Amino acid sequence: MAAPVTSPAAAPAVPWLPRETRWVGGFGLVAIVLLVVCWWQAAGEGDPSDQLPWLNLGTAAVLVYWVLAGRTLARARRRVAERRSAQLAALGSRPWLRSDAPSTPAGDGLVVAAGMTRAHRPECPLVSGKPTSPAPAGAPTCGICG
Q1: Do 84 and 121 fall into the same domain?
Q2: Which of 39, 62, 89, 137 has its CA 20 to 30 A from that of 45?
Q3: Which of 129, 126, 128, 130 is nearest to 141 (CA)?
Q4: Of 6, 143, 22, 1, whose CA–CA distance to 82 is shortest?
Q5: Are 135 and 111 in contact (CB under 8 A)?
Q6: Where in this protein does the record put region Disordered (predicted)?
Q7: How far apart are CA 60 and CA 26, in angstroms?
């Protein structure tokens, strides 16, 4: 079992690694080729008892691929959950996300950055580190900082 991620930067940026993508993709191609070969061989047999080994081999190839792909998807889902947990934990200490934080009406101390259409509190993470200017009156407020 993987160790829990303590910071968003420690978690992989993508849910699956390139090595896993190549492995699952390559085995998927092998499974497809094996399935076509099994179909071709079974189609050449007239007796159903002679077709059965090819059917079993093709079914086994598909089942092994499903297990491998399912395992990779489960790992990817776990990585996404770990990254999300780390990001939410990092945001948990932010005062603008607390439910007891006072709501600031639009136009009263709100700012916008270049290219933004919504007004934000100055401490909002969406405008942190960006040059800001006072928000115009009537600008819609940010859905995160309120």
Answers
A1: no
A2: 62
A3: 126
A4: 6
A5: yes
A6: 123-146
A7: 16
pLDDT at position 102 is 44
Task: Read off the tokens for 146.
Answer: 């309120």
Q: Which domain does 109 fall in, by range?
A: 95-146
Distance between CA atoms of 134 and 99, rounded to whole angstroms?
Answer: 25
Residues 26 and 77 in one domain: yes
Could you tell me the pLDDT band of residue 54, with boundaries at 50, 70 and 90? very high
Distance, CA of 139 to CA of 106 (rounded, Å): 7
C-beta of residue 121 within 8 angstroms of C-beta of residue 104: yes
The beta-strand segments (E) located in 1-146 are 111-113, 132-134
- In 3-state terms, what secondary structure has residue 128? coil
* One-letter amino acid of 16: W
